[in-house]
Structures are given as structure tokens and as C-alpha cells.
């Protein structure tokens, strides 16, 4: 049985992509260990089919955190026996590269995003310089890799000549609960980070007669709270913070419309295919999203969303209001979601994952 270590910087509890990947591998005779970090308020880990380990850090953000975590991760991995190691994004790639060299084992790069294309990286010259140097130095040395969209895989090939697979971040197909809600509301789920369009969505809520529920947390939370107060929409916007996956699944099925308005401020946002697109679809939830390449490609085929060409507050408000009022279109999009999830699900996507790992070990 081949043993694979995966390294992330989150606390494991809310990372549905890694849960799916690790579970699939564990169910197919791989010995899997997922390593993350433990925060002060991290919930207890649930029992999974794979092993989990969380490392405690003194620092929880910025350069000091990344430096400390990489050192702790390296020391933890140093004395572990493994047959392969997988770095999740650039923030774990350095220790994973060093360990793979030291132990002479295959190394894999799982790019959940184009890290150097994130707004929080692009907008900070020194930060961008550091991460770009790491990417240029190490990504070409990871010949085995995969990412979340065809467009990002193509960008990696253009930059470094690597041939990475596309393994999309799609939920496991499971029955809908057919939960009915007593009120209409709009849902945003996912990271509350820079470049997610909150500077446009919150002002838009002044023109929308419906409640917005935001499930998630991130580096933009303080600014988001200020935006809500400045736009006087405290009665319309509810912040839940991080929600456990099972509870979020229930909320998603109760919502009327899902929204996502990533800004075209970094190439990552433009080329990405985030999990929320599929999460909304799996909950039978019509969505209003942006007309970026990956969304358009899927929506042209499945028609599960209304796509907008810009994210000005009036455009957002008009799109949401029109969809709320058009019950026929709302119903059609919902039915299209239910049909689309029969083909777009993890049970199908994991077949590519298994081929990828079996090819590495030639099993």
C-alpha cells in the first residue's frame, strides 16, 4: 500500500476538496495522511478514512506564519516514511520539494488556484516578487501535477511547459433533501477574501429587496463589515462566519439564488473555476455569476446560471431582481442544475484522480 502525504495550510475541517481527494484515495488502497494547522478556534476533527495531523503555530498570518509553518511542516515530514508527497498550492511547495529530494520520492503539485494571480498577491509588489520567485523556481520541478480548471492548466503549460491534469472541484453526488424555505434569500458561500466583489455586491443590496446570507470567512471580513455599515444594509446582510459542511448543504438548498462576483483583478480570478459554482449547482440553486471563460464554457452547455458582463452594483442588482421576479426562468435553471449534477459530480471526476495516481506508481 503506497503512502502519500498531503500538505495544506488550513485547519482541514472546512476543506471539502481535500476531503474528497483523500477519501477517494483511501478507498482505493492508498495510505493517506493530510497535514494542516490547528488554529485557536479550530473545531475538533471528524473521523475520516485517512489520517489527519494538525500543526500548531505561534503566528497565524503574514510572513511570520508562512515561515514558521514551513519550518514546522518540514520538521514534521522529515522523519515520516512515505512513498510520495503532494504540495497544495505554493504555500507548502518548498518543504514538500525538499522532502521529495531528500527521500527520493515522487512529488506532486495540486494547484487549487494560480497563487501568483491572486489579488492579495498581485497588489503587493514585495509579496508578488517572493511568490513569483518560488513559483518559477519550483513548479517546473514538479512534473506531476493537477489543477482545478483547464484554463489554469494551460497557463501553467504556457509559463513552465508542465503538462498538468484538470481535476475539478466538484461535490459528491448525494440526494437532495427537498427542503423548503419560508422566505426568499440570496446566498454567498466561500472565502471572504479580496477580489470576491464585495465592494460591488454590498452597495447593490441597497437596490435588492431580499436578504443576503454570507457563509464564510477570510482576509476581507473587517472591510466587509465596514461596507455593510457604510451602505446601511445591516438589516439585509447576515454574516454566519464559517459553517460546517453539513449545515452549509442545508442552507444552500433553502436559498433562492447563489451569487459569486470575482473581480478581474488577477489572472487567477479570471481563469479559475471555484467550487462554489458546482456547490450551488448540486444544491439545485440557480446562480448569478460573471461571464468568465470557465463559467461561460459550462453555462453554454448546462444553462444553470445568469452571467453578467460587469459587476457594477446596478448590474448586479438588476440581474438579481430580474431573476427573483422571473419564476419561470428560476424554475428552469433549478431543473437544469438537477440534471447537470448527474454528470458533473465527484463520482465521475475521481476516475481521473485515480488514473493520475496509479500512473505515478504504475499500478
Can you describe this structure?
This protein has helices at 16-27, 62-78, 93-103, 119-122, 125-138, 150-160, 198-204, 221-230, 245-254, 267-271, 275-282, 293-302, 313-325, 327-340, 346-361; strands spanning 3-7, 31-38, 51-56, 84-88, 107-111, 144-147, 165-166, 185-189, 211-215, 237-241, 257-259, 287-290, 305-308. It has 363 residues and is of the alpha/beta class. The chain has two domains: 3-170 and 345-361, Rossmann fold (3-Layer(aba) Sandwich); 185-340, Glycogen Phosphorylase B (Rossmann fold). The strands form two sheets. A seven-stranded parallel β-sheet has the order 3-2-1-4-5-6-7, with helices on both faces. A six-stranded parallel β-sheet has the order 10-9-8-11-12-13, sandwiched between helices. Helix 1 crosses helix 15. The model has no long low-confidence stretch (mean pLDDT 95).
Amino acid at each position: 500500500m503506497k503512502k502519500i502525504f498531503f500538505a495544506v495550510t488550513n485547519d482541514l475541517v472546512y476543506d471539502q476538496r481535500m476531503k474528497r481527494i483523500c477519501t477517494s484515495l483511501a478507498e482505493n488502497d492508498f495510505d493517506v495522511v493530510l497535514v494542516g494547522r490547528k488554529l485557536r478556534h479550530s473545531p475538533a476533527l471528524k473521523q475520516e478514512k485517512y489520517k489527519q495531523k494538525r500543526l500548531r503555530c505561534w503566528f497565524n498570518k503574514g510572513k511570520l506564519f508562512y515561515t514558521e509553518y514551513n519550518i514546522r511542516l518540514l520538521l514534521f515530514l522529515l522523519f515520516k516514511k512515505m512513498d510520495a508527497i503532494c504540495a497544495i498550492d505554493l504555500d507548502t511547495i518548498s518543504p514538500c520539494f525538499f522532502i521529495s529530494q531528500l527521500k527520493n520520492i515522487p512529488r506532486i503539485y495540486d494547484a487549487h488556484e494560480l497563487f501568483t494571480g491572486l489579488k492579495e498577491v498581485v497588489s503587493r509588489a514585495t509579496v508578488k516578487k517572493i511568490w513569483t520567485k518560488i513559483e518559477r523556481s519550483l513548479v517546473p520541478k514538479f512534473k506531476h501535477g493537477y489543477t482545478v480548471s483547464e484554463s489554469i492548466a494551460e497557463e501553467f503549460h504556457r509559463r513552465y511547459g508542465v503538462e498538468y491534469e484538470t481535476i475539478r472541484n466538484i461535490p459528491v453526488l448525494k440526494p437532495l433533501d427537498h427542503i423548503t424555505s419560508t422566505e426568499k434569500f440570496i446566498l454567498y458561500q466561500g472565502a471572504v477574501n479580496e477580489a470576491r466583489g464585495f465592494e460591488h455586491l454590498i452597495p447593490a443590496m441597497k437596490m435588492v429587496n431580499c436578504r443576503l446570507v454570507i457563509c464564510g470567512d477570510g482576509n476581507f471580513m473587517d472591510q466587509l463589515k465596514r461596507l455593510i455599515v457604510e451602505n446601511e444594509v445591516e438589516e439585509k446582510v447576515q454574516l454566519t462566519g464559517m459553517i460546517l459542511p453539513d449545515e452549509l448543504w442545508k442552507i444552500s438548498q433553502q436559498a433562492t439564488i447563489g451569487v459569486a462576483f470575482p473581480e478581474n483583478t488577477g489572472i487567477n480570478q479570471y481563469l479559475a473555476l471555484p467550487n462554489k459554482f458546482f456547490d450551488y449547482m448540486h444544491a439545485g440553486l440557480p446562480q448569478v455569476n460573471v461571464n468568465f471563460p470557465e463559467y461561460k464554457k459550462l453555462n453554454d452547455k448546462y444553462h444553470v446560471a445568469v452571467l453578467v458582463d460587469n459587476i457594477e452594483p446596478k448590474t448586479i442588482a438588476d440581474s438579481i431582481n430580474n431573476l427573483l421576479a422571473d419564476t419561470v426562468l428560476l424554475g428552469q435553471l433549478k431543473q437544469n442544475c438537477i440534471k447537470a449534477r448527474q454528470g458533473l459530480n465527484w463520482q465521475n471526476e475521481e476516475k481521473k484522480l485515480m488514473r493520475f495516481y496509479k500512473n505515478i506508481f504504475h499500478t
